[in-house]
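User: Structure please.
Assistant: Input sequence and predicted structure:
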Amino acid sequence: MILQFLYLAILALFAAFFLARTIYRLHFHPLSRFPGPKLTAATGLVEIYHDVVRGGKFLWEMEKMHETYGPIVRITPHEIHIKDSSYYDSIYTNSKKLNKDPNFVGLFGSPQSMIATVDHAHHRFRRGILASFFSKRSITALTRRSAAFAAFAALTTDIITHYSYGESFGFLDSESFRSEVRVAIMETEELDHITRLFPFVLTVMRPCYGGGCDDTELGAGVMDGGVTLAQLEQLPYLTGVVNEAQRLSHGLVIRSPRVSPTEALMYKNYSIPPGNPLAMSSYFVHMDPTLFPDPTVFNPDRWIEATKRGDNLTRFITAFSKGTRQCVGINLGYAKLYLTLAYFAIFFDYELHETTEENITVARDRGVPFLEKGHLMVKAKVVKVLRNPYAA
């Protein structure tokens, strides 16, 4: 009898706790006056259901919320999301020195890394150590021609490792072009929507991580010459292709919340209290029909037309994020795109192969964009060799 009473008392305490917490979140929480569904304001289980059970679908639930409640929505008990492309810079290039949300960086599985650094000042210090090696000047000076016969995943790994460590991992020499680094990253990406909510999953699944090469000098690999990056960047259509590729590949589709430690942030008539995460999603910016008419259409000409009109559409490309938290490798990333696309065009005539719209339609948010099943993937078949790549 006493044991039964104890169980009932414990259940009653839990029930009272959850009831009190729900009442607080709905009526007394600093975000209680913001628009949004009562259920998402009361519990984080909604996000867990759509991202964990349904597999990365919360992004589209957020879109439905915005359709119902407007551009600013309380999407979880503690977080505000804004869907307004013109406001993106106010969060991610803000001069108020915003921090990352500590509850969001667990998905990276590397708490001491630069990308997972929460504090703005600490991140700035860490980034400063590497920034000069990835500056536009450094990348331009060391850029080599990308092999036109390379498989993209292997190419990416070999270029980055050659530049960063002075020694390529040599995945292009593999008959299958298999990049073990890429495979490992892809396997981890499939769990990003879970590890963000439950960071311990990475610890359980991968108790031992590679240590890297701490004593290796960045930029040790000297690249040879060829067509210069500066020349390629002057080609309007190629630039349009690169920009459109960035827009439709999205980079990270997962939102990246920022937290103002001391000052309130303003959005129109709303004041977001300090200490509460505020986020936007690159996916919504890239697919904004007011900026990019027919946003699902790959149209490089839109960038040429925008330039003629004097519109700076590139400020809405957020695939590498923006501001002080922008990916340190952005210049290397763009260099790879320009050079690889240019040399593919020079050496080969090719056409799409076994690729439909379904192969590039984002359907799941697992940190990076996923299809309903698998990764985004485009296949091409060489129909004619225009020049011998080995003689280049």
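The chain has 16 helices and eleven strands.
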